[in-house]
């Protein structure tokens, strides 16, 4: 688990050191990239607030409870939703912010160090973009459902940031003041900080005819494309891997139309990574996972050792879904 994630610390940190000395241009650029990541999130949240306000204000004030015949302001269509099951297939994009975290590297006879407060950037709209796909199933005559959710995010350690190192690097005490690029040619999951989760869903009381809030909680696996390349090493780890469990909680608003739904959603995810440094150039996900499983079964240790870190992320997403309602079976 994370040694240094502080969920209460400000996202931007400070722009100058406590002793009054100015930070290096590289550190300032890293802080700027972090600020821009938060700007994306704030933009999505502003859009969420505006859309919710417009839709809610456009709804009639009173509706009728179809079961009890009583007026229930702001709870339109609840019983219509509960009376039928449905499936929704959807895709989405969004913006993440990933908290700084430790990076722990153990390569027998070579490295045994911890880098503290490594900052990660998401670059959600640079190729490959942030995206996700999901399938949700709501039960008949119930507010509960389930969802299989795949998220392709990114976590990239910018090469110019300065590392706070403890332990040994290349068999010697790790020096202070080294940049990421002095230790790693690449440290990222940019072809996927990928998470596949199975989620339980619960509909909340509706906000008018079209706005339907929901919450969810899920767990699953992390399947990132790990990219770890040490400076001066002619071998790199560049493959899809299983790196451990993943969990997420979410709150969303579904805007329902005839057969489609738009949705805006906030997610918080947590994924502890345990990366085997296989020093392989991988290919497709299925083959890379097969190679990893074979190594585990045969008890073959990864030649480059192991790298551990935690990714805790805020994510704001927006997407479009198509709803499929089962056709009732005619009674003879």
Structure described in brief:
The protein is an alpha+beta fold and 332 residues long. The protein has four helices and 15 strands. It is 17% helix and 45% strand.
Write a concise keyword list for the protein shown above.
elongated; 8-stranded antiparallel beta barrel; 332 residues; alpha+beta; disordered N terminus
Q: What can you tell me about this protein's structure?
A:
17% of the residues lie in helices and 45% in strands. With 332 residues, the chain is an alpha+beta fold. The chain has an eight-stranded antiparallel beta barrel with strand order 1-5-6-9-10-13-14-15.
Q: Can you list the strand order of the major beta sheet?
A: 1-5-6-9-10-13-14-15
N-to-C order of helices and strands: HHEEEEEEEEHEEEEEEHE
Structural class: alpha+beta
The DSSP helix count reads 4
Uncertain ranges? 1-35, 54-79
Spatial extent as radius of gyration: 23 Å
Shape, please? elongated
Task: Please describe the biggest sheet, giving its number of strands, its sense, and whether it closes into a barrel.
Answer: 8 strands, antiparallel, barrel
Count of β-strands:
15
Q: Name the helicity range.
A: 10-25%
């Amino acid at each position: 688990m994370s040694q240094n994630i502080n969920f209460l610390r400000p996202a931007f940190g400070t722009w100058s050191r406590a002793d009054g000395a100015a930070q290096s241009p590289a550190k300032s650029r890293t802080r700027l990239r972090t600020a821009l990541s938060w700007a994306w999130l704030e933009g999505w949240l502003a859009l969420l607030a505006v859309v919710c306000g417009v839709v809610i204000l456009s709804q009639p004030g009173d509706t009728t409870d179809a079961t009890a015949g009583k007026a229930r302001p702001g709870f339109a269509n609840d019983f219509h939703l509960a009376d039928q099951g449905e499936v929704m297939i959807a895709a989405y994009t969004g913006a993440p912010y990933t908290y700084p975290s430790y990076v722990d590297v153990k390569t027998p006879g070579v490295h045994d160090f911890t880098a503290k407060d490594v900052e990660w950037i998401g670059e959600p709209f640079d190729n490959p973009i942030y995206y996700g796909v999901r399938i949700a199933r709501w039960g008949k005559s119930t507010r509960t459902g389930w969802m299989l959710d795949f998220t392709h995010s990114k976590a990239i350690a910018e090469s110019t940031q300065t590392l706070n190192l403890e332990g040994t690097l290349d068999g010697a005490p790790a020096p202070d003041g080294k940049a990421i690029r002095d230790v790693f040619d690449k440290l990222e999951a940019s072809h996927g900080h990928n998470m596949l989760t199975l989620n339980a869903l619960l509909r909340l009381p509706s906000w008018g005819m079209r706005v339907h809030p929901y919450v969810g909680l899920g767990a699953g696996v992390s399947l990132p494309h790990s990219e770890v390349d040490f400076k001066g090493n002619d071998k790199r780890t560049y493959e899809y891997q299983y790196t451990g469990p993943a969990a997420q909680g979410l709150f969303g608003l579904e805007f329902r139309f005839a057969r489609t739904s738009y949705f805006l959603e906030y997610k918080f995810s947590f994924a502890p990574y345990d990366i085997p440094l296989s020093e392989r150039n991988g290919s497709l996900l299925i083959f890379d996972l097969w190679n990893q499983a074979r190594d585990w079964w045969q008890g073959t240790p990864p030649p480059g050792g192991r790298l551990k870190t935690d990714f805790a992320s805020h994510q704001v997403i927006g997407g479009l879904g198509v709803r499929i309602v089962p056709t009732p079976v005619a009674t003879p």
